From TrEMBL:
Subcellular compartments: Cytoplasm, Cytosol
Name of protein: Ethylmalonyl-CoA decarboxylase
Family matches, as Pfam families: ECH_1 (PF00378)
Keyword Phosphoprotein applies: no
Source species of the chain: Planococcus shenhongbingii
EC annotation from Swiss-Prot or TrEMBL: 4.1.1.94
Keywords: Cytoplasm, Lyase
UniProt xrefs under InterPro entries: ClpP/crotonase-like_dom_sf, Enoyl-CoA_hyd/isom_CS, Enoyl-CoA_hydra/iso
Source lineage: Bacteria, Bacillati, Bacillota, Bacilli, Bacillales
The protein's role, per its UniProt record: Decarboxylates ethylmalonyl-CoA, a potentially toxic metabolite, to form butyryl-CoA, suggesting it might be involved in metabolite proofreading. Acts preferentially on (S)-ethylmalonyl-CoA but also has some activity on the (R)-isomer. Also has methylmalonyl-CoA decarboxylase activity at lower level.
Family listed: Belongs to the enoyl-CoA hydratase/isomerase family.
Reactions accelerated catalytically: (2S)-ethylmalonyl-CoA + H(+) = butanoyl-CoA + CO2; (2R)-ethylmalonyl-CoA + H(+) = butanoyl-CoA + CO2; (S)-methylmalonyl-CoA + H(+) = propanoyl-CoA + CO2
Amino acid sequence: MSYKIEMKDQIMTFTIDRPEIRNAINDEVMVGLEELIKKVHNSNPRVVIITATGSRAFCSGGDLSVFHELKTEEQAYPMLKRMSEVLYSIKTLPVPVVALVNGAAVGGGCEIATACDYRLVWEHAKCGFIQGTLAMTSGWGGATYLFETLQHDRALKMLSDANALSAEQLFEMGWATKVVKDQADIDEFFQTMKKIRPEVHRAYKEVAIRKWRLNGLKDRVEAEVRRCAELWAKDAHHEAVNDFLTKPKK
Ligand SMILES: CC[C@H](C(=O)O)C(=O)SCCNC(=O)CCNC(=O)[C@H](O)C(C)(C)COP(=O)(O)OP(=O)(O)OC[C@H]1O[C@@H](n2cnc3c(N)ncnc32)[C@H](O)[C@@H]1OP(=O)(O)O
């Protein structure tokens, strides 16, 4: 199985479990995330954690060994749309969602982390919207969420630079909620959360969801998906992906 879903002490944890391919997202992981969303609505945890196996990567984005077969806009759009709906559902879960960034979060992996409410980033992790290096934009809603998260110039620069930033840089710019160096740092974050009753956390999450419903977040995500699908179909993107897939083995 490419993922795990566990519930302990009212904390539901989703773990991407494809470390050999840096926890890239394929159809099976998408199915798992869709299952997570249903479980959260049915079992009412106090908090959700999204993380991954190992320490090399949180998520390296879409699995290019699979998605490179999508050539046209019409072929790419359904995959982008499906994952954008997964991330919108995660964004609007009625409980706090924490990305425990255990390693590199790049491309769509950075989008997943940005769709979460909080980002606890291990000090060695590097994260970035590197889609620009593939001659395209984010395509799962991540850019839309980033403009909801950071001050405008920092969001636009993170997207346009298309590079991976250090945990300290991510904290300074306001993307990382906390840089963590050990389990104690993580435990401290959740201990603080546990001091307040779950219904208070849910009520404040409702305030954010109301804002997003009023400011057209879903429509803005759809426009991002459509634009990405257009760029996806161009030769420059296919050539960049091919370069990645044919790079010499380390
Ligand atoms: C689908 C659209 C989506 C979006 O933006 O909306 C996307 O995310 S597009 C995909 C964008 N992601 C990338 O371009 C990331 C590519 N990967 C990397 O930059 C690195 O692998 C990194 C930084 C995540 C980790 O580097 P590290 O040196 O630790 O590992 P390797 O690069 O040697 O990778 C190990 C092994 O995994 C394969 N790999 C890694 N990422 C992907 C991926 N996203 N898709 C497919 N395969 C991936 C890599 O090729 C290596 O394979 P091997 O056969 O062992 O050489």
